[in-house]
Hints:
Layout: E1 2-8, E2 37-38, E3 42-48, H1 57-70, E4 77-84, E5 95-99, E6 106-113, E7 118-127, E8 132-133, E9 149-150, H2 151-163, E10 182-185, E11 188-191, H3 194-205, E12 215-218, E13 220-226, E14 229-234, E15 237-239, E16 254-257, E17 262-265, E18 267-271, E19 277-286, E20 296-306, E21 312-314, E22 318-320, E23 330-337, E24 352-359, E25 365-372, E26 384-393, E27 402-409, E28 420-426, E29 430-437, E30 445-453, E31 466-474, E32 479-486, E33 490-491, E34 496-506, E35 511-519, E36 530-537, E37 540-547, E38 554-562, E39 575-583
Parallel strand pairs: 2-7, 3-4, 3-5, 5-7, 8-9, 16-24, 33-39
Antiparallel strand pairs: 1-6, 6-7, 10-11, 12-18, 13-14, 15-17, 17-22, 18-21, 19-20, 19-23, 23-24, 25-26, 26-29, 27-28, 27-30, 30-31, 32-34, 34-37, 35-36, 35-38, 38-39
Amino acid sequence: MKTRMTVSILATLFAGALAHEAAAWTWLTCTGGLKGHWASHNVPFRASLLGFPAESDWATALQSVVSSWNTTPANVTYSMSWNELFIGEGNGESEVWWSGSISPPAVCYTWYNDLLCQIVETDVVFKNTVSYTTSTDKSDLTPYGGSNRPFRTTAIHEFGHAQGLGHTTDTYSVMGQDWDHIHANGSLATAYPGEDAFAGSVAVYGFKGGAHEDLAVAHWRHTGASGGYSAHDRARVLDAAGGLLSDVGGDEPVYLVAKGQQVKLQMSYENMGKSTHDAQVGFYLSSNDYISHYDTFLGAMTVNNLGLNTVYTSDGILLTIPDSVAEDTIYWLGAIIDYEGTVAEVNEGNNKTYTAIQIQRFPDLEAVGVSSLVPPGGVVPGQVVPVARTIQSVGGPFSGSFTYKVRLSLNTSITAYDPLVANLTSATLGAVGLSLMIPSDLPAGTYHWGLVVDAASGETATANNTVAGGSIVVNEKPDVEVVSVKGPKHAQAGKKVKVNFKALASHYGGSFTYEIRLSENTVISAADPLVASGTATGSGKHKAKFTMPALPAGKYYWGVRILAVPYETETGDNALAGNRVKVK
């Protein structure tokens, strides 16, 4: 008695929960628990002339699928004949063709003898309206942002069914979601049966004779199950604590990292050979997506006891991104299994793969310039002057506020020891006008303005955060002093009076206001009776002539009080008492 089984392939993409590793192959099982198998260790197939004419791209792709199965360690092979005109189901021949009448992207029809559990015929049929491609250029393929489904991964899946393999849900496997069970390095993406399918085939058919070792690394991982198939997604780049880094990529992931940052490169490792190995994995940094031993070596780890029954997804080891990398530039982290070449492998082409990273471009605030408009004669301490500062962002994206300092320096080397004029916070970049006061205790001299921008969060390029600006002359502080006061010894209301006083105007050439007051003591203040006022200019002797106002009779002291001139801070010598006077 012959039984037909139809196995179809997944038509759409699925997402799933995270899972790491398993040996999860399944097999066609007959009554009594026997596993379906071919009686012969060679399975002949015939390819349709209409769909796979000899020497065509489709025939070449199909032959590569057959060859990939024939180079496994399992003791079963396929042979292919071409240009078959007469094909069909249930004719005792195993055949491959295209059809528009099937629903899924591809199916495998299997006829087997249930009593002996022997497979007698399998037919693989591809849906002719699916956008398949024979290309191995990853940019053409859906897993890498292309628009076409890779024909070879689907064909490998169906030829796995032709051996007796069933669908897998529990590990990264071509017998699950096939289109992203694929190996890539550089622009080339290669379909392959993989460890899980190999392990199932070996378990049923045994090993071929002779040596056969093959280690591999893939930048894909198992993420769960959906619709009876294993679901896959790209391996990732993690931070030192195992957290997922930000992915800023498009068709392929690109993880954002910083100079000097420690990261982990997650990868899946497979052993598709006969022997278990402690596999040595080297990690590299490359300027392109083709990983080789010429790239910058970052470190190595050992995957212990990697055998045929395990697809092992590892988070890897801590890798330090070199400080020499350029910001805002894409690099590729790569893994090479058996990087020292200690294992003689039948296929070295699957030992290397990559994941892209982008070096974070941190904010870079630049102090562009600072200057002031001052009178030709300079300024004095305490004077408020107009100042213009310019700050710009020349690095990565920057928003929010920043702090900066304005200083005055006796030279163009601006340091934290230079006198501080202002410590400001702003959210405005570009040119901004300020009104700043010259420090009241600043010694006289010729100074340079200095602008110092505090580093923004994450900013590492700080050499441009300080700039020296234009010069400014700071003069000595003005000081007007009353040196002597002399008036008449007698005074009467309504009579003319003359008071002489001497003033010393240091660093001040303008006019000043004086007051003549009478005080009952020698301390002259604004509370004493005001009898006259006027203005005078410069140092020297000055005379005040006025009519004596009416005051209570008594004895007083003549006093002169000079009002503080602009920016004068030493006013203790601005008032002085003179001789006594008797007022009638």
